[in-house]
Automatic annotation (TrEMBL):
It comes from Saccharopolyspora oryzae. This is HK97 gp10 family phage protein.
Length: 129
């Protein structure tokens, strides 16, 4: 005796849930990637003020990672005065660590960022979040 079962797939409802999960994972992944780039940037160190001034502003689908817009060094001088020269100039020496192009190296070519994003999306799809 054969048994017959009917399978109904509510395409619209399931698609909307999958789409919402992917959107949420993408937003979470972008934020995680920006935070990772901020943490891993090889910022030059003298007093630590420049490193502490780092911020990641995320408004999906854009993340902006920046240094120097807030904070001040021990002498009270704002980090915005030296953040760009420290980043751009190769002739500066950094005896306490760090390097020129400290943020650019972290964001280019972007492979690590994509790996972080792919991991976050994979976890949401697998239900592990």
């Amino acid at each position: 005796m054969a048994t017959c079962k009917r399978l109904d797939w509510d395409w619209d409802s399931r698609f909307a849930r999958v789409q919402a999960a992917i959107q949420e994972a993408s937003e979470d992944a972008l934020e995680a990637a920006a935070d990772k780039a901020l943490a891993d940037a090889d910022v030059p160190v003298r007093s630590g003020a420049l490193k502490r001034s780092g911020r990641a502003d995320v408004a999906f689908p854009v993340a902006v990672v920046h240094f120097g817009s807030t904070g001040s060094d021990p002498r009270g001088r704002g980090t915005e005065h030296y953040a760009i020269p420290q980043h751009q100039r190769y002739d500066y020496t950094h005896p306490r660590g760090g390097s020129a192009r400290f943020l650019e190296y972290e964001l280019s070519p972007g492979r690590r960022l994509y790996e972080v994003m792919a991991d976050r999306i994979r976890r949401v799809i697998e239900g592990k979040k």
